[in-house]
Design a protein that fits this description.
Blueprint lengths: L13 E6 L4 E6 L5 E3 L5 H4 L27 E3 L12 E5 L11 E5 L7 E3 L3 H18 L1 H6 L16 H5 L5
Antiparallel strand pairs: 1-2, 2-3, 4-5, 5-6, 6-7
Length: about 170
């Protein structure tokens, strides 16, 4: 697998595009004008893996574990992974077209090899989520649940800042 490549100028992800005139693969940055040709002698730079997802609904969210390598994402140490116990996560906001609730944050564990992710939930949603999980367990049965690890919701207490006064000052301005 070739992995992600980043722009040396602005640190954003480089996207692949074929150069039809030279019949060669090219890496482009969507944020600045940086571009470069792939090394023709390097297999890893010329290997393209494409994954297409067919979403059935807004609940079908697929997060790549490689997203934690994106330097443009926010980072926090005030989140604990329920799978591995790591306390560092990258986070980003889901677009409204993917999620009904505005400003929904997704936390992704930064521990190499873990890749666990969870959506942030609000207090009133926790009871509804527990009921839905119970219904899903009863519907799926025990054999399906042993093969599936559903993402857990992150409680609202997992904040990205120690104290709001630290961010805005004592008077909140």
């Amino acid at each position: 697998m070739s992995g992600l490549k980043f722009c040396p100028d602005c640190n954003n992800i480089l996207y692949m595009k074929p150069d039809t005139q030279k019949l060669q693969l090219m890496f482009l940055c969507r944020q600045c004008d940086y571009s470069r040709m792939a090394d023709p002698n390097s297999f890893s730079e010329n290997c393209v893996n494409r994954t297409t997802y067919n979403f059935q609904g807004k609940d079908d969210i697929i997060i790549s574990p490689l997203i934690v390598k994106d330097p443009t994402l926010g980072r926090t140490t005030h989140w604990t992974c329920v799978r591995c116990g790591w306390n560092k996560a990258a986070f980003f906001q889901l677009p409204e077209r993917v999620n009904d609730e505005a400003m929904m944050l997704v936390f992704v564990c930064c521990n190499q090899g873990c890749g666990y992710w969870a959506k942030q939930v609000y207090e009133e949603d926790e009871e509804e989520e527990e009921e839905e999980e119970t219904d899903a367990i009863n519907t799926l049965g025990t054999t399906a649940m042993t093969q599936m690890v559903p993402p857990k919701e992150v409680p609202m207490e997992a904040q990205t800042f120690d104290d709001m006064a630290e961010l805005f000052g004592e008077d909140g301005i």
